[in-house]
Amino acid sequence: MSDAPSDYDQLTAAARQLVAIEDLLGAPFMPARPDSLPPVEPQAGPATGQALPGASMTREQKADALAEMDSREVKPCTKCALCKGRTNTVFGESDPDADIVFIGEGPGADEDATGRPFVGRAGALLTRMITAMGLSRQQVFITNIVKCRPPGNRSPAPDEVAACWDYLVRQLQIIAPKVIVTMGNPSTQTLLDTRVGITRMRGTFRELPEIGEALGGIAVMPTFHPAYILRQYTPDNRSKVWSDLQQVMAAVGLPAPDAK
User: Fold this and answer.
1) Beta strand 141-144 with 100-104: parallel, antiparallel or unpaired?
2) What is the gyration radius of the CA atoms in the chain, in angstroms?
3) Strands 93-94 and 141-144
4) Distances in Å between the alpha carbon of 39 and those of 45, 96, 181, 195, 203?
5) Confidence at residue 215, expressed as pLDDT on a 0 to 100 scale
6) How many Å separate Cα 216 from the centre of its chain?
7) What residue spans define the domains of the chain?
8) For every residue of the chain, which 3-state class applies, written as one string?
9) How far apart are CA 198 and CA 212, in angstroms?
10) With contact defined as beta carbons under 8 Å apart, do 201 and 215 qualify?
11) How many CB atoms lie within 10 A of CB 172?
């Protein structure tokens, strides 16, 4: 029996994608004009000539390596004071061999309770964003800068970021993504080592600095955090996020959605 999706499955997936796009935009979907997005030349992969450790690993080997880091290092971690107030660590989840990694700032209350990233209202919007791209959560990897919830959902402090930094670097080295999507100011400014705000940074591919061996040069697309979109749910903001996601789709070779 073939594992290839049937015509019905393909049509269902396409319909689900269009519904997610219209939900994201708050209006009926119209395909973008070919020249409606600014031209970009993303560096989809490290520019140093070095191979990422994950480049030679199978999906199963990557999954095992990530699971071992989570169970042996992250779950028992006491490197910073965030460990004192957590219910669960939130390592990240989904495809260990993903082309796209989404990175937020830190877990919220729902994530702390479940141990899973982006499962609250912001997570529901992120899921719709991913579906609009023609993907599922299972086809990307989702994580945060820090793995424990900051009190009151505040932004992570510098010492908290430093405590989790090695975990994030090694996650990226193992997954070896083509594109990283940073969501919001904390993740964007941390990954790109900048003080520039997300409003100015979003919409243009940047190159990841050499934050770890062979990671320099990976394409990074900064965009608004889903929680911000929920607070500022304007057509303009939703359109900007969709523009950002369209560029990511093009960078990894995903087909543009067809409204017909």
Assistant:
1) parallel
2) 18
3) antiparallel
4) 18, 30, 18, 25, 11
5) 96
6) 17
7) 7-252
8) CCCCCCHHHHHHHHHHHHHHHHHHHCCCCCCCCCCCCCCCCCCCCCCCCCCCHHHHCCHHHHHHHHHHHHHHHHCCCCCCHHHHCCCCCCCCEECCCCCEEEEECCCCHHHHHHCCCCCCHHHHHHHHHHHHCCCCHHHCEEEECCCCCCHHHCCCCHHHHHHHHHHHHHHHHHHCCCEEEEECHHHHHHHHCCCCCHHHHCCCCEECCCCCCCCCCCEEEEECCHHHHHHCCCHHHHHHHHHHHHHHHHHHCCCCCCCC
9) 23
10) no
11) 25
- Backbone phi, psi, residue 38, to 5°: -65, 140
Positions in the chain whose pLDDT score sits under 70? 1-5, 7-12, 14-15, 18-19, 26-49, 258-260
Question: What integer pLDDT is reported at residue 43 of this predicted model?
Answer: 45
pLDDT in the model for residue 36: 39
User: Residue 194 in contact with residue 188, Cβ under 8 Å?
Assistant: yes
Instruction: Report the pLDDT value the prediction gives residue 20, as an integer from 0 to 100.
Output: 73
Asked if 114 contacts 156 with a C-beta cutoff of 8 angstroms, the reply is: no
Q: How many other C-beta atoms lie within 10 A of the C-beta of residue 47?
A: 14
**Cα–Cα distance for residue pair 238/216, rounded to 1 Å:** 30
- How far is it, in rounded angstroms, from Cα 22 to Cα 28? 5
Give the side-chain half-sphere CA count within 13 A for 43.
Answer: 14
* Residue whose pair of structure tokens reads 């969709």 in the numeric block: 242
Judge: domain 7-252, CATH 3.40.50.720.
no
The β-bridge partners of 207 are 219
| Pair 221, 244: CB distance under 8 Å | yes
Using an 8 Å Cβ cutoff, are 171 and 145 in contact? no
The whole-angstrom separation of Cα 177 and Cα 94 is: 13
Instruction: Quote the pTM value.
Output: 0.86
